[in-house]
Specification:
The structure is a single chain. This protein is α/β, with parallel strands linked by helices. The protein is built from ten helices and 13 strands. Helix 2 runs parallel beside helix 8 and helix 5 runs parallel beside helix 7. 28% of the residues lie in helices and 16% in strands. The protein has an eight-stranded mixed sheet, with helices on both faces. A five-stranded mixed sheet has the order 3-10-11-12-13. The chain has two domains: 381 residues, Alkaline Phosphatase, subunit A (3-Layer(aba) Sandwich), CATH 3.40.720.10; 56 residues, Arylsulfatase, C-terminal domain (2-Layer Sandwich), CATH 3.30.1120. It is globular and about 60 Å long. The protein starts with a strand and ends with a helix. The longest helix has 31 residues.
């Protein structure tokens, strides 16, 4: 059996029609109905998981968990490395002792390949391409230090809200991003080139007896510079500056109309990614690979788009805007097709389940669970999860979310059924639930 694993970055679950047909759940503006026909079709052919959470955030800790199948949280003391400027807990390269999924499958006779535009995987001192016999990096996302030519005078202004002070720190990411994109029209956006390259790889390698293709796109992560045809789905009448990087502003600094434009740009990037997922799956069918290829689609985390008064995603934002992500598993024989699974799932369970479905030798150090038998039997997966993001530790159970700041000891409890936007701490009203979830965290962290 082959496997194609697709990872997206920052794809909110509520921005996929099949997950939330009534539209986006955010409370900062009119709900948007996001067009995702490819993923909607995939949902009818896959097991669809409602409660998948990365056990550690953000991107690199999550990818380490994907690649190894082991927990990255609780955080470990790890050495620093030159070239890595991100200070998030768990933001470290794969260790020399890690056995990656690609390394393991290569030892089992698989042809392994990675096609990616998530530049974090390829930065100096990172080694996420280890174990792949073929790897290809499409340059240009976010702050990827790719192009260095200066921007023309006045060029940046068309992407900024007038009257807002733009410090070098505020503008360095958008400036680098625009340098990277100045000459991309002929070749396409990084996400487009990634999926084109992946399709080309499939065309050239379909004859292999067993292959593992890992595709990782940084989209729909900001900055958001979609093709006009996708933006027109959500904001066809906008005639102001192209606000592609909401992170430079607080919500209070943008008008409601400007805020809608920022949200529309994110939705347009979600539709862009969906479009190219559809193109890839069409190629799988065209090449006769559907009946012997396991397809997995997942994201690392969601995105904050105006909630909590901003457009960035600090760890304090842990909740339903940031943590729930899409997760699809399409079995080549159609097992569990169209089944919607409500049980709690860690991202490391995907790795364990993939290995079990491929029928290969067990990989060392996998801490996730093979959840496929439970899905098939309609049995419970887990009754809770404990996740970590920087100093915020979260315990999830039923509709409860308990948050603990591991530095200060400050804690809060939310009932997400009554308070979907996580506004009211009810810890004092529900001491038994508070104490039970605090114990769940102690069981993991010691």
């Amino acid at each position: 059996m082959n496997c194609i694993w697709i990872t997206t970055d920052s794809f909110r679950q509520d921005h996929i029609h099949c997950y939330r047909p009534e539209g986006t759940l955010d409370d900062t503006g009119e709900s948007i109905h996001v067009h995702t026909p490819a993923m909607d079709k995939l949902a009818t052919e896959s097991a669809l998981f409602d409660r998948m959470r990365a056990e550690s955030l953000p991107t690199i800790p999550c990818c380490r968990a994907f690649f190894t199948g082991r927990r990255i949280f609780p955080w470990r003391d790890e050495p620093s490395h030159k070239g890595i400027y991100n200070s998030h807990h768990g933001w470290h390269p794969l260790t020399q002792d890690d056995v990656t999924l690609a390394e393991h499958l290569a030892e089992q006779g698989y042809v392994t390949a990675m096609v990616a535009d998530c530049y974090h995987l390829m930065k100096p001192s990172m080694n996420f391409h280890r174990g792949f016999e073929s790897f290809h990096w499409n340059r240009g996302q976010e702050f990827d230090r790719w192009n260095s030519q200066p921007l023309p005078d006045g060029y940046l202004d068309q992407f900024l809200k007038p009257g807002i002070e733009m410090t070098p720190r505020r503008t360095r990411t958008i400036t680098q991003f625009l340098k990277n994109h100045m000459y991309l029209d002929a070749d396409g956006l990084p996400v487009e080139r990634t999926f084109r390259w992946a399709i080309q790889w499939l065309e050239r390698n379909a004859a292999h007896e067993n292959f593992y293709l890992y595709i990782d796109t940084f989209s729909p992560h900001e900055p958001w510079l979609p093709r006009p045809e996708f933006l027109d789905l959500y904001d066809p009448d906008w005639d102001g500056p192209s606000l592609i990087y909401g992170n430079m502003y607080s919500r209070a600094q943008l008008t409601d109309r400007e805020h809608h434009h920022v949200r529309a740009r994110y939705a347009a990037m979600c539709s862009t990614v969906d479009h190219w997922i559809g193109k890839l799956l069409e190629a799988v069918d065209r090449l006769g690979l559907r009946d012997d290829t396991l397809v997995i689609l997942v994201s690392d985390h969601g995105k904050i788009i105006g909630e909590f008064g901003h457009y960035v995603m600090p760890h304090q934002d842990t909740g339903l805007a940031l943590n729930p992500v899409p997760c699809f598993m399409r079995h080549p024989k159609g097992e569990n097709a169209g089944k919607r699974v409500g049980g709690w799932l860690y991202n490391i369970d995907i790795t364990a389940t993939l290995l079990a479905l491929l029928g290969v030798e067990p990989k060392p150090d996998v801490e996730g669970q093979n959840i496929w038998p439970a899905v098939t039997a309609d049995a419970e997966l887990r009754d809770h999860l404990v996740t970590g993001y920087s100093t915020t530790v979260a315990a999830w159970q039923d509709d409860w979310l308990y948050l603990l700041n591991s530095d200060t000891g400050a804690a809060a409890l939310y009932n997400l059924a009554d308070d979907i936007h996580r506004t009211t701490d009810v810890a004092d009203r529900y001491p038994s639930e508070r104490d039970a979830l605090a114990a769940r965290i102690r069981d993991v962290t010691g």
